[in-house]
Amino acid sequence: MKSLDKGKVYLVGCGLGDVELLTLKAARIISEAPVILYDHLISAEILELIPQQSKKIYVGKQKSCHSVSQEEINALIAAYADQGLDVARLKSGDPYIFGRGSEEALYLIERGYAVDVIAGISSSVAGPACAGIPPTARGYAASFSVVSAHLKDSAFNADWLGLLLVSNHTTVVLMGLTLVGQIREAALAIGVDGNLPAAIVSNASRPDQTTIVTTLNNIEEASYGAKSPAVLVFGNVVHLHGRLPSY
Questions:
Q1: What beta strand segments (E) does 104-164 contain?
Q2: N or C: which end of the chain has fewer CB within 10 A?
Q3: Quick one: 140 and 233 in the same domain?
């Protein structure tokens, strides 16, 4: 029997959760792909776009609770593509912004699979915007950085803390909510002003979105009521919260 051609793999950025923030291409692929692998942050509204006949496979990763390892996810994608089935791998935000999209794409391309990466709206930009905090604004910030507070194996990443000393700058921190105590302590130790404005935006674009405005000095105490997923924002742009439209 002639072997089936390999299916195509789509790494689909699904944005923050609001289904209306999907790109048209992402929505089309989700509605057409016969196999869907999805993460734990993919909203119920987006999952409702998947046809009933499509196969849905949950491969979510949460802090200290990985249902499926990255190696297993790679193998699953390849196994279904080997059957001639197109596979959509749904990823929160954008696949290439702390989403391991490059790892999955390289694994598949090196093994002869066709891969298409569909950009998504990243929480690093839209998360603050949903809270009425623009990453850049004339007179407040002329540049911004996006960093992760985590390294491999959940180690604390302190390499970026010097950015908090840069004037006229915004620093957006992903995956930092559980590390705010270490961030505060390490930032103060290198001379960052404790009055630096800070915000915690939880569940951006979703019905339960919340925003906590605080300072570096008080961010650990303020974080006790915050929920994941969350982005941290440091810089004078935080002062615009409440003055600009929020989600």
A1: 115-118, 143-148
A2: N
A3: yes
DSSP element (H, E) containing 32: helix 24-32
The two tokens of residue 139 are 């007179």
Contact 83/7 with Cβ under 8 angstroms? yes
The answer to whether residues 162 and 198 belong to one domain is: yes
Indicate the number of domains in the chain: 2
Q: Is 63 a catalytic residue?
A: no
Assign 155 to helix, strand or coil.
coil
In this structure, the dihedral spanned by the alpha carbons of residues 50, 48, 89 and 134, taken in order and rounded to 10 degrees, is 140
Q: What is the mean pLDDT of residues 169-189?
A: 97
What pLDDT was estimated at residue 183? 98
The tens digit of pLDDT for each residue in 23-75 reads 999 999 999 999 999 999 999 999 999 999 999 999 986 655 556 899 999 99
Q: Based on the fold, state whether residues 97 and 22 are members of the same structural domain.
A: yes
Count of CA atoms in the C-beta half-sphere (13 A) of 171: 22
Q: Residue range 205-223: average pLDDT? A: 97
Residues 6+ apart with CB under 8 A from 27: 49
61 is catalytic: yes
> Both tokens of residue 47?
């999952």
- The CATH number for 233's domain is 3.30.950.10
- Any residues with CB less than 8 A from the CB of 8 and at least 6 apart, and which? 81, 86, 87, 113, 114, 115, 116
pLDDT tens figures, 131-146 = 999 999 999 999 999 9
Tell me 98's DSSP state: S
